[in-house]
Fold this sequence. Notes:
Number of helices: 6
Strand content: over 45%
CATH architecture of the largest domain: Beta Barrel
Order of helices and strands: HEEHEHHEEEHHEEEEEEEE
Low-confidence stretches: 5-18, 164-183
Shape: elongated
Structural class: alpha+beta
Number of domains: 2
Distance between the termini: 116 Å
Radius of gyration: 35 Å
Mean pLDDT: 82
Strand order of the largest sheet: 7-8-9-10-11-12-13-14
CATH class of the largest domain: Mainly Beta
Amino acid sequence: MRVRVALFGLALVSAAGAQPTPAPAPAPAPTPAPAPAPRVAVFSVHVAPGIDPSLSALVERQLGQSAGRLGYELTDPTTTSRVATGLSGALTPERASGLVQQSGSAFGLFASVSASGGRYLVNVQVSPASGPPRSAAAAGVSSDLYASIDQALRSLLPPAQSSAAASPAPAPAVAPESEPFPEGRFRLALGGAAAFGVSPGPFQNYLAGARADWRFSDEASLGIGVQYANLKGKEGRAHNVLSVALFEYRIDVGAGWAVPLRFGSGYLPKNGPVVKTAAGVSAPLGDDLELTAELLAPTIWITNERAVLSLDVSAEIGVTF
């Protein structure tokens, strides 16, 4: 009997000292994937006649960089180019919203460039996929122009986080199969030149013809051309045809003006090679038209194994396409 009581008491003590098994902790909730950044489409910037067309690409780049700092993803430029192909006339709010929707973007950035008082003026417009557009003006020269564009865009475009919370970006549009070749890479020039001999004696040669150029960068180009040559001969004037190859490096001085530095080499049948260097000035006449004058162009003519030197001047009209 005493043994049973002792065993029963021991069982009570063990039960009293036992701790309950804790319930398993709940698994942490999975972290939601971050929402994709809304997209912004940067459309081609319109540049007024008389302004360097290369400013269009510079303004587009600044708009893209400013939008990126606000947390936006840039729409593929080939998509933007495709939906804007053939666009002409006034950009109404309805047309702007339609372009933004076709590009699959949340916002579209449009801009136009003009000039006044020695400063560039940029009108920046932000158009949502649905809703009225908003505009702001930027002005300046060189680096301060880009800072002004950044400030204008920030006043119009909300940060990407608040924009994404308000309305998610539309579904992406299908990009075209190939990217169109950039505009303004080719140039056709028509003009003439006068050569005034200085060594070994005075003479005058006259040239007139055409040249086709290929711009492989914003500053440099290569060209080939052919010119009719009216030359000083042994017995009066002589006629010939000069084929020429030309390398040009342009120094942009703003407002569409540039200083072209050139090196050319050609050949006159039955005479010999012709080599020249030249410096001049290019002035805009329109969106794709310019007048170029070579003001200093020393030229060496090789005739009958003898080199003669002339100082040339020339003028030409060029159109880019």
